[in-house]
Amino acid sequence: MPAAIVTVLTFLVLVALAWLFLTRTVLGRGFSVPLRTMLRAPETAQYPEQPRPVQPRFHGRHQLNRYADGLEKCIGCELCAWACPADAIYVQGENNTPQARYSPGERYAEDYQINYNRCILCGLCIEACPTRALTMTHDFEISADNYDALVWTKDQLLSPVPPGGEDTPHPDREVRARGLNYYGGLAVTPPTLHGGRFAPATPASASRAAQVVPEVGDPTHRKGR
């Protein structure tokens, strides 16, 4: 057999073996990723002047949200802290009072801390939040040059007061007068985040508003439990 034919056949066999290795084996499929990347033209991002847009479901810095009137959505239930696999969240709940109400619920978060030295940005905390008080933004520039600066407190995490709202605390009489249904399902989702159809908070009946914020002296208003 001529040497040229042997060379061609050997080359074809090697190509076939390489193709089978890259497409039919786990190790080969892993090698195919950098091989494909080597053939692409390099892309240079002009960061930080022109940062690349992140994906819609990107998990960045956390944010504690408010309702439209300024009340905080966090009810101090600590479910986010229990769900955190890295033990990066600390929540200290406290009872609302008729003179000082921070959230529509019975309790609110007096102290809220997220330790970004530990946080793995997995998003389990926002999945556990029953009121959508805790969400994750697209902000990823949270680096610091010391340990303490990466422990974010409630003042840093709490979103600004919406236009037309007031900063907490609010007296109960003002909250009852608004008659808002704070537990309106999708109404608890921040309107600034996209990805679904979110219903805004709507006026509720007087009976519903009384359930959300009971009258002072009502036997159902259990204070200091």
Key words describing this protein structure:
225 residues; alpha+beta; Alpha-Beta Plaits; 2 domains; three-stranded antiparallel β-sheet; two-stranded antiparallel sheet; 7 helices; 5 strands; 11% strand; elongated; disordered C terminus
- CATH topology of the largest domain: the name is Alpha-Beta Plaits
Query: In angstroms, what is the radius of gyration?
Result: 27 Å
Distance between the termini: 95 Å
| N to C succession of SSEs | HHEHEEHEEHHH
Task: Describe the strand arrangement of the main beta sheet, using strand numbers.
Answer: 2-3-5
- Give the CATH architecture of the largest domain: 2-Layer Sandwich
Low-pLDDT sequence parts: 186-191, 193-210, 212-225
Write a structural description.
This protein has 225 residues and is α+β, with helices and mostly antiparallel strands. The protein has two domains: 27 residues; 151 residues, 2-Layer Sandwich (Alpha-Beta Plaits). The strands form two sheets. The chain has a three-stranded antiparallel beta sheet. Strands 1-4 form a two-stranded antiparallel sheet.
Topology:
Blueprint lengths: L2 H22 L1 H13 L23 E3 L14 H5 L5 E7 L11 E9 L8 H5 L5 E3 L14 E2 L1 H4 L14 H7 L27 H7 L13
Antiparallel strand pairs: 1-4, 2-3, 3-5
Helix pairs in contact: 1-2
